[in-house]
Amino acid sequence: MIAVGIGARAGTGVAELATAVAAALAEAGLEVLDGTVLATLDRRAAEPGVRELSRVLGWRLVAFGAGELAGQAVPGPSRVVAAVVGTPSVAEAAALLAAGTAAELVLPKRVRGGVTVAIARGGPRAEPG
């Protein structure tokens, strides 16, 4: 399973999100068909751009609360992100949680055009919540 975690400001459009995800996949040597899950913070999952990206890619959208994301160890925590959304990581933590059992980062967080993307590989996971 390949899970792509994303973090972005409210109101970020599908074009910006898609560009960042495509760049991250290319850097990791992956293609859109390799992905299965788009994961993010619960309040970002309600955003039109994120929902549209999930639909266009044909990936399942998985959302996590800030508390759940904050409980996931990540290599690149951010105090700034923690102050803004209540968790030191969105993209890396969401990718790892969504990838499930024995998840590992294939690509640590990358920022492109204000969108943060991380990619994890792992096994199946039960639905959150």
Automatic annotation (TrEMBL):
Domain CobE/GbiG C-terminal, residue spans: 2-120
Query: What SUPFAM superfamilies does UniProt report for this protein, alphabetically?
Result: CobE/GbiG C-terminal domain-like (SSF159664)
Concerning Gene3D superfamilies, the annotation shows: CobE/GbiG C-terminal domain
Point out the coiled-coil segments of this chain: none
Q: Name one Pfam family in it.
A: CbiG_C
- Signal peptide extent: none
- Membrane-spanning residues where? none
Under which name does UniProt file this protein? Cobalamin biosynthesis protein
Give the species: Actinoplanes oblitus
